[in-house]
């Protein structure tokens, strides 16, 4: 993985020092809250319902064991002993105090971490496939591109006050495990013509929020040399022409929709034309330097092992262990979705355990997934049994990765100042109910898999509800929480936005509604058919009838 | 009115030559002939002025570019690195935000970038260039 050199180290230390000065000037009254707000947001600091929330960047979800341990220390020292992994592969501390944040940033900088551009109207933390570099179906590791983009976009002077936030995702495999098409710009990287630096398909205008859109193809086959110039001009056209009169229409997806893709493309080409692009010439050598950090040629080959397994270990192998590009290795996903748990919440102790396990079993490397779990990417198959035993002991062996109970949820009204309804209690209730059904299916030797469920506590869609097979959106209708259901969304390479099923439900009704949706799918499902395949085949009406025709009989 | 120069000088002036005044929301169709151009930012959070400066430099504007409008000291870096030579600061903003905050705007900020912008007046050399011996 990428390790900071002295230049990177000095850069994040300087940013931490700058932020300390900004906090001091705010506390001295030299900056108004209105002036301070964009400055603190650009450093990941939100004022939430109960406290300041600090969002720490985990660039493209990759971190070292030492960095994970540092996060655990921060959780214990400055939060209430836990943190929250987000759908953007970041980590949030929900109970920080403004006066402590500069010290936290110094500690992070020491560990080669930062909170740069984890919020605000700027280019955000670049995300990718949590299995990048190890997935068996990968064409090229997308992370050197991600790191190059992290460096290019960090403290970018021209694109620091954009109309709205700007999210970039990069993938390097045919299967999209990063919801790439739901980003402002999505890149698919693949080996370049002469096998050297990658070429890219560039997608634009995806996003969630109140106007969900699947990205459109901007240009295919962009060679490496033209990547940064293209992004530079794409961002400039957005900065100059994106709407600033209405924050809900300010994302690039609206600009592309209003201008039309052709016109947007023409504006970008016109901006690029005649520009002196020589400042980007050094990017190639820098890409090569970064790529060397991700080279896994030195990973010793291992004999492939056939594992005899039964019971809980077999279930865990089925669900939480992913095929690896190297023989003799596997990628292990640690679930933070135990029955009744808060999705993505991890204690400081959990983080230290993960750090120790990564050191022992995974080349001291970890990943955070956009589904709010943590991956140990380099586990020798021969170590799987020992690792499983250690996870059982730590209470981290929940075997449900990719199952319905692997629910995504934002913090919702329990923490977030933007939320209109609670997400966490809904996730907890559903996870308890669905985990029991999955365990039952497994005990009977049946397939426990089912639809994905994502929950957002407001229309901003941090919980990615639009992109779930079953999306749950918490709204506030007449002073009461009301949950709107969408069906048929998907975040993969066939990305689609879910369709609204009908009128919303009270919080108490949601588990019964979800049970009916899943029962309806099972009733109509042909052998091994996925939820979306059934949904696309039989249509919304079948589900609508099943949900709304008979009363739910749920005690309020 | 005060001026913060990209080389660091910060001083009050009785009168300032602002030259041609442009709105910070649009890149002009033709290159200005005036030796001084002032780009007026519409708001603190309105970053179009930075792209206007960058585009003017890319078009080949060689004159003096001044940024004006409701900016804060923390944005001085952004302005210089986007191609402005100076920032015009009102007496009111110096009084409220502190003369020191403006005078030290460039020493309190992150002075390096990974890759500098064409036309930048900022102090950055570029970390990529440094890494690769350029």
Pick out its properties.
heterodimer; A: 556 residues; alpha+beta; Sulfite Reductase Hemoprotein, domain 2; Sulfite Reductase Hemoprotein, domain 1; five-stranded antiparallel sheet; B: 134 residues; six-stranded mixed sheet; globular
Describe the structure.
- The complex is a heterodimer of chains A (556) and B (134).
- Chain A has helices spanning 6-27, 33-41, 65-78, 101-110, 143-153, 224-241, 252-259, 261-272, 283-293, 311-320, 348-361, 384-394, 424-443, 510-524, 531-538, 540-548; strands spanning 45-47, 52-56, 62-64, 82-85, 91-96, 127-128, 168-171, 185-190, 199-204, 216-223, 321-323, 329-334, 345-347, 365-368, 374-380, 408-409, 453-456, 470-477, 480-487, 499-500.
- Chain A is globular and about 65 Å long.
- In chain A, helix 3 (65-78) runs antiparallel to helix 11, helix 6 (224-241) packs across helix 8 (261-272) and helix 7 (252-259) crosses helix 8 (261-272).
- In chain A, strand 18 and strand 19 form a beta hairpin.
- Chain A folds into four domains: 6-110, Sulfite Reductase Hemoprotein, domain 2; 127-293, 2-Layer Sandwich (Sulfite Reductase Hemoprotein, domain 1); 311-394, Sulfite Reductase Hemoprotein, domain 2 (Alpha-Beta Complex); 408-548, Sulfite Reductase Hemoprotein, domain 1 (2-Layer Sandwich).
- With 556 residues, chain A is α+β, with helices and mostly antiparallel strands.
- The model of chain A has no long low-confidence stretch (mean pLDDT 95).
- Chain B has helices spanning 48-59, 76-82, 91-97, 99-103, 127-131, and strands at 2-5, 10-12, 20-23, 36-40, 64-68, 86-89.
- Chain B has one domain (2-131).
- Chain B has a six-stranded mixed β-sheet.
- In chain B, a hairpin with a 4-residue loop joins strand 1 and strand 2 (10-12).
- The longest helix of chain B is centred in the middle third of the chain and has 12 residues, at 48-59.
- At the A-B interface, helix 1, helix 2, helix 6 and helix 9 of A face helix 1, helix 2 and helix 5 of B.
């Amino acid at each position: 993985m990428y390790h900071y050199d002295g230049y990177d180290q000095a850069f994040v230390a300087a940013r931490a020092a700058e932020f300390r000065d900004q906090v001091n000037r705010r506390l001295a009254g030299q900056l108004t809250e209105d002036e301070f707000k964009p400055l603190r947001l650009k450093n990941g600091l939100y004022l939430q319902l109960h406290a300041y929330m600090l969002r720490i960047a985990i660039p493209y979800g990759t971190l070292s064991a030492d960095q994970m341990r540092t996060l655990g220390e921060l959780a214990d020292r400055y939060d209430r002993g836990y943190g929250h992994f987000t759908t953007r592969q970041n980590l949030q501390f929900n109970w920080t105090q403004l006066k402590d944040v500069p010290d936290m940033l110094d500690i992070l900088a020491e560990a080669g971490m930062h909170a740069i551009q984890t919020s605000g109207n700027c280019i955000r933390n670049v995300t990718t496939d949590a299995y990048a570099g190890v997935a068996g179906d990968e064409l090229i590791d997308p992370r050197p591109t991600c790191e190059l983009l992290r460096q290019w976009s960090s403290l970018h002077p021209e694109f620091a006050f954009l109309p709205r936030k700007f999210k970039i995702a990069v993938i390097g495999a045919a299967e999209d495990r990063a919801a790439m098409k739901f980003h402002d710009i999505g890149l698919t990287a693949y080996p370049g013509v002469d096998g050297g630096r990658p070429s890219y398909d560039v997608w634009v205008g995806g996003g969630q929020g109140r106007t969900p859109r699947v990205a459109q193809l901007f240009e295919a086959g962009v060679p490496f040399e033209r990547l940064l110039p293209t992004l530079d001009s794409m961002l400039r056209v957005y900065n100059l022409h994106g709407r600033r009169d209405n924050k809900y229409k300010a994302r690039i997806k609206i600009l592309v929709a209003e201008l039309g893709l052709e016109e947007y493309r023409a504006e970008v080409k016109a901006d690029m034309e005649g520009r002196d692009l020589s400042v980007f010439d050094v990017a190639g050598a820098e890409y090569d330097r970064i790529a060397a950090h991700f080279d896994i040629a030195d990973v010793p080959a291992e004999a492939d092992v056939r594992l005899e397994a039964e019971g809980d270990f077999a279930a865990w192998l089925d669900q939480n262990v992913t095929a690896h590009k190297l023989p003799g290795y596997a990628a292990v996903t640690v679930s933070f979705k135990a029955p009744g748990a808060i999705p993505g919440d991890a204690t400081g102790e959990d983080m230290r355990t993960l750090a120790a396990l990564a050191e022992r079993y995974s080349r001291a490397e970890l990943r955070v997934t956009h589904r709010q779990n943590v991956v140990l990417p380099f586990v020798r198959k021969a170590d799987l049994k020992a690792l499983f035993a250690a996870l059982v002991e730590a209470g981290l062996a929940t075997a449900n990765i990719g199952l319905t109970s692997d629910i995504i949820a934002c913090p919702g009204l329990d923490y977030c100042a933007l939320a209109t309804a609670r997400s966490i209690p809904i996730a907890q209730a559903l996870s308890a109910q669905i985990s029991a059904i999955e365990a039952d299916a497994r005990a009977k030797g049946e397939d426990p898999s089912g639809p994905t469920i994502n929950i957002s506590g407001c229309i901003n869609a941090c919980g990615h509800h639009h992109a779930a097979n079953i999306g749950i959106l918490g709204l506030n209708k007449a002073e009461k929480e009301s949950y709107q259901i969408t069906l048929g969304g998907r975040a993969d390479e066939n990305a689609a936005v879910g369709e609204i099923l009908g009128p919303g439900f009270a919080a108490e009704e949601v588990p019964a509604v979800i049970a009916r949706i899943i029962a309806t799918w099972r009733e109509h499902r042909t052998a091994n058919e996925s939820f979306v395949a059934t949904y696309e085949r039989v249509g919304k009406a079948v589900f609508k009838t099943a949900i709304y025709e008979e009363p739910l009989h749920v005690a309020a | 009115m005060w001026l913060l120069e990209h080389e660091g000088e910060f001083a009050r002036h009785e009168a300032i030559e602002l030259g041609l005044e442009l709105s910070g929301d649009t890149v002009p169709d033709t290159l200005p002939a005036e030796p001084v151009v002032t780009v007026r930012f519409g708001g603190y959070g309105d970053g179009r002025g930075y792209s206007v400066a960058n585009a003017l430099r890319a078009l080949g504007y060689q004159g003096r570019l001044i940024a004006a409008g409701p900016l804060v000291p923390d944005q001085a870096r952004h302005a210089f690195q986007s191609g402005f030579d100076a920032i015009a600061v009102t007496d009111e903003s110096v009084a409220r935000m502190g003369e020191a905050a403006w005078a030290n705007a460039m020493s309190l900020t992150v002075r390096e970038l990974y890759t500098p912008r064409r036309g930048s007046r900022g102090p950055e050399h570029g970390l990529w260039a440094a890494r690769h011996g350029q």
